[in-house]
Amino acid sequence: MAVIYSLKVNAFASSGLHFATFHYVSVEMTGVLKKLLFLQIKYYKMLHIGLSHTSETVVNDSNTARTYGSGGLDVFATPAMIGLMENAAMTAVENDLPEGSSTVGAHISTSHVKPSKLGATVKATAVLEEIEGRKLTFRVSACDDDGIIGEGVHVRYIVDIQKFMSKIK
What we know:
By secondary structure, this protein is mainly beta. Helices cover 15% and strands 54% of the residues.
């Protein structure tokens, strides 16, 4: 009779994220218990410095400061710009995460230096600049047809979706 125990281990390194599954196998053969330990390496696309993505939107009535309640003018809202930056960061790494994982935003420090009018196309770009275990740090910027409208730093953490969602009651 063989009993197999598996333990998934996420090993983080500054160069990226590595995943391995350890299998502990207990095999009983003719009354003698033999135990084997072996390692199965799983290769995933690697997170690496420089991953980037650009998300875009058009300024309309649904994303103005007046609609968000963050101001009284019909210009692109700061919360909408921040959301677009977060979306760019999330999307930059989503295809390089292991199955069952995602990222969550934890911190953003940004400026919003110029208004964008109704009808303007706004693009936010995120570039992965640092990997510290589960912590991912991005340089983010947003621009419209006339140039930079905001820039900053955004931090996200890699989470196991099932474990993260189990915390919600």
